[in-house]
Amino acid sequence: MDNQKPKLFSKAPLPFVGQKRNFLKAFRSVITDNIINEGCGWTIIDVFGGSGLLANNAKHLLPNARVIYNDFDNYSNRLSNLADTNRLLILLTDVLSNSPRGKKISDRVKAKVKDTVNNFDGFIDLQTLSTWLLFSGKQVGTLDELWQHTMYNTIRRTQYEIADNYLDGIELTSVPFEILMSQYKTSDKTLFILDPPYVSTKQGAYALDEYFGMVQFLRLMSLTRPPYIMFSSTRSELLSYIDHIKEYDVME
Ligand SMILES: C[S@@+](CC[C@H](N)C(=O)[O-])C[C@H]1O[C@@H](n2cnc3c(N)ncnc32)[C@H](O)[C@@H]1O
Questions:
Q1: Of 92, 121, 150, 171, most Cβ neighbours within 10 A?
Q2: Is residue 208 within 6 Å of ligand 1 at its C-beta?
Q3: Mind listing the pLDDT tens digit for each residue in 144-159?
Q4: Does the C-beta of 209 come closer than 6 Å to ligand 1?
Q5: Is any ligand 1 atom within 6 A of the Cβ of residue 50?
Q6: Does pTM surpass 0.70?
Q7: Hey, what long-range contacts does 155-161 have (CB within 8 A, 24 or more apart)?
Q8: Which residues are registered as beta bridge partners of 45?
Q9: How many CB atoms lie within 10 A of CB 130?
Q10: For ligand 1, what atom is nearest to the CA of residue 16?
């Protein structure tokens, strides 16, 4: 078992829509109150890993556990190119230096932004770039799509912290949840962390094979067994669903 321990992060090193930074206090106490010996003998699987923030916290707090991060969005690739992202940040900060913060960027400056990005010789982190140029939280799937939008100067003021040790000791995989959960469904001392895209919400920021709707949710529930930690929103009606299961004893 790799019990190297990553540095503890309280937010993801690079932007990620839907990261669970505001739920870390509760998450940390649930895992440390329920799992003893720093996770010895346990496997913890962050099934819908997103930014990997929950996997990072789990491995830091329970370093003896095996922690698996399902990196479905290839976030780790964004992390390994963080130095390029910082380099592009410096270039665009310069391009935007005379544009008022929070305000729409003129067509002339937008053309310069586009030139700078198109001529950049490194990795382009589209999700991060969107947070510097688009109105609050808007995300796009391609650069072409980015240029269609009205742009605002919301560029970040500081460099991103190098996060080389963010995933220390954590195993990475990248597979649809059905495959991963089926593999561990009957394993003992295996905790599923379940933070799926919320049904009935906009999911544009994620790498989706298909929209995560009712059918995916039911598939997920059929593979879910204790112990698990599930995140949900009130709009997803998870609690009503669980009440229904309890009342009618639908699951075996
Ligand atoms: C709400 S986010 C998870 C956020 C994460 N807990 C964090 O703190 O950063 C849901 C994640 O599920 C991923 N996802 C979507 N469909 C999936 C699938 N079929 N199998 C596995 N992951 C999937 C999305 O790409 C997204 O990264």
A1: 92
A2: yes
A3: 999 999 999 999 999 9
A4: yes
A5: yes
A6: yes
A7: 155/89, 155/92, 155/93, 155/96, 155/101, 156/89, 156/131, 156/132, 159/86, 159/89, 159/90, 160/13, 160/14, 160/82, 160/85, 160/86, 160/89, 160/128, 161/13
A8: 68, 192
A9: 23
A10: 9
